[in-house]
Amino acid sequence: MEKGPYDGATAEKYSNESPPYGGPAKVVEEKGIRLGEAADMYGDLGSAEEYGYVSRGLKSRHIQFIALGGTIGTGLFLGIGRAFTQAGPLSILLGYTFTGIAVYAMMMSLGEMATWLPLPGAIPQFCARYVDGAMGFAVGWNNWYNSSITLCAEISAASVVIQFWNGAQDINVAAWISLIIVLVVCLNIFAVSIYGEAEFCFASIKILTIVGLIIFAFIIDLGGGPTRDRLGFRYWNNPGAMKEYKGTGSTGRFLGLFSTLVNAAFSYGGVEMVAVAAGEAENPRHNIPKAVRRVFWRILFFYVLGSLAIGVLIPYNEPRLLGAIDSGAPGGAASPWVIAVYRAGVPVLPSIINAVILTSATSSANAFLFTGARYMYALAQNGQAPRFFLKCSKR
């Protein structure tokens, strides 16, 4: 395999010799920070001018909101319903909590590395530099493949969510898929600041919705809904806090808890996006640590409190939820949040929640297209993907 632009030999050369082009500081002074970073990465000014480099166009507020809500998609709104019906309320609460603890520990370590070395793509480069080139190759291509598949899944989910409304069911789903693809590509093909603004708007909608739903759950649970029925933890007693799954007794309850970890891992997917975006963030030494620390609040409010809210609002054997999941009902019909709103007797909220699920799926697709492109860019920098993937536009 051809050596990459930043292989071990190049790193050794940097440690023993002065760069032939006068050093990145001189290039930054004469030609700007983009070419300075590119020259430092590629080892010569010619390659830097030929391929270009990414722009640091993501502002502090972009990075903060990407960290808080960038990749929250259908897993938290739709996928959690299946895990809930399989395992029960306590199991999904514990599953999301255990997974959240592991994710938070990982993000603290990854955030420290991304702050010290803010590279576009980051993760494959960290693996190749500090473990082994083979690990960088495996991690980079697997993450790129994961982003590609999840991108398709989120676009497909968004197109199905649209069919929740009556008028959309008569239109071929391919039309919705095409529209969403065009939107997502347009948000990524131009300047990275446009992507940042889009994610800022999408994340704001998701954050406001999740906070609103948690407040709604608190009010309904205490009897503030139209029915004035105080729920408390009624459904943890009947039908129960933990449902048996693939077994009976303690074994079945443990397997139910274990099954929630798969859904929780999918829902947390993409949380590492802060590190991927570090290479295009303004002042990463300041903005990345601040963003990574806020991942804790994302885990606590969105996932842990969200799963608790679902568990007190509806029982895991709710017939409408089970029927919607079994029949593959479109859109928010299979969302436990929508079922909870129907049970509470608030007629206008289901359409609002469905619209938020649609924006969440579109936002998640947007984010995975961004991260997939940066993983490929990192692989090309490592010499583990074709060099033409290094080419950057002037924006």
Structural class call reads: mainly alpha
Give the end-to-end Cα distance, rounded to a whole number of Å. Answer: 31 Å
Number of DSSP-assigned strands: 0
The main β sheet shows up as: none
- Low-confidence segments, ≥5 residues, pLDDT <50? 1-6, 8-18
User: Given the C-alpha coordinates, what overall shape results?
Assistant: globular
Total helix count? 19
Residues in β-strands, percent: under 5%
Average pLDDT over all residues: 81
Tell me the Rg in angstroms: 23 Å
Order of helices and strands: HHHHHHHHHHHHHHHHHHH
Question: Which percent bin holds the helix content?
Answer: over 70%
Summarize it.
By secondary structure, the protein is mainly alpha-helical. The chain has helices spanning 8-16, 24-31, 33-42, 45-51, 60-69, 74-87, 89-116, 123-130, 133-162, 173-189, 192-221, 234-240, 249-268, 273-276, 284-293, 295-313, 319-327, 336-344, 349-381.
What report would you give on this structure?
The chain has 395 residues and is mainly alpha-helical. It is 71% helix and 0% strand. The chain has 19 helices and no strands. It has helices spanning 8-16, 24-31, 33-42, 45-51, 60-69, 74-87, 89-116, 123-130, 133-162, 173-189, 192-221, 234-240, 249-268, 273-276, 284-293, 295-313, 319-327, 336-344, 349-381. Mean pLDDT is 81; it is low at 1-6 and 8-18.
Descriptors for this entry?
395 residues, mainly alpha, disordered N terminus
Topology:
Elements: H1 8-16, H2 24-31, H3 33-42, H4 45-51, H5 60-69, H6 74-87, H7 89-116, H8 123-130, H9 133-162, H10 173-189, H11 192-221, H12 234-240, H13 249-268, H14 273-276, H15 284-293, H16 295-313, H17 319-327, H18 336-344, H19 349-381
Helix pairs in contact: 2-3, 3-4, 5-11, 5-15, 6-7, 6-13, 7-13, 7-15, 7-16, 8-9, 9-10, 9-19, 10-19, 11-16, 11-19, 18-19
